[in-house]
Amino acid sequence: MEHIKLTEDLPIGFMDSGLGGLSVLQQAVRMMPSEDFIYYGDSANAPYGTKPQEEIRRLTFNVVEKLLDMGIKGLAVACNTATSAAVRLLREKYPELPIVGIEPAIKPAVEDNHGGEIVVMATPMTIAQEKYHRLLDKYRGDKEIISVPCAGLMEFVEEGDLNGDDLDRYFEEHLSPYLSDKTETIVLGCTHYPFIRPHLRAFLNNPSVNIIDGSEGTSRELMRRLGEKDLLRKQPDRKGSVTIINSTGSDEMIRRSEKLLQMPVD
Ligand code: DGL
After folding, report:
1. Tell me, what's the pLDDT at 121?
2. Distance, CA 159 to ligand 1 centroid (Å)?
3. Distance CA 231, CA 122 (A)
4. 203 and 169 in one domain?
5. 245 lines ligand 1 (CB under 6 A)
6. Total number of domains constituting the chain
């Protein structure tokens, strides 16, 4: 257990294995425009989703410690993979820090379901984790949920390839076998995937399929937790800032991140 001093004027920390968590940060900035944010993308160690659990934990703690050294008043683990591998341990180690994680949006998918199939796209590690199976057991009921491990998909976003033929080939090979005329909802269970939603939408060519993700719910929960501890800024006219750090140290990754942060994903 570590003691941390939390004050209202500190920034809110965000972490992800790379650029994906920016899809969650977009929502958080929209909801809390007076706040400052520090986003740490660990692209040098990406992907997390095909690594063993122990390694994901070690990498996640390493990033969180860097954010804590810089000073943060709350933390969003904006990565489904890191959340499932490490969020419980993070909460144990930093009990007074408001911490939110993101998990595949199974609950809203089930609640809105009209009898069709729910397809969940996520990293192999997210799908293999016990936390994911508990989530399925909790909400599935009699609904048909198909889990699709998408190794290699986050790399398209890291490389800025958001709409090429290679992405079509990826969908054709890895996703199409799980789709049918019964597909009602696709859950984007990795924070990188909202950035390829426009291309996925075009690939599906079927406006009746819902494509959902958990970024809005996660940002709302982050705001609620900060509010509960009276840590939200109280100057509604203040314009907050976003600082982006990437473990590659590359300017190109920062430029790419800034572009993604501005990109409409819903
Ligand atoms: N963005 C991450 C997630 O939400 C994972 C991508 C990866 O590193 O494999 O799961």
Report:
1. 98
2. 14
3. 32
4. yes
5. no
6. 2
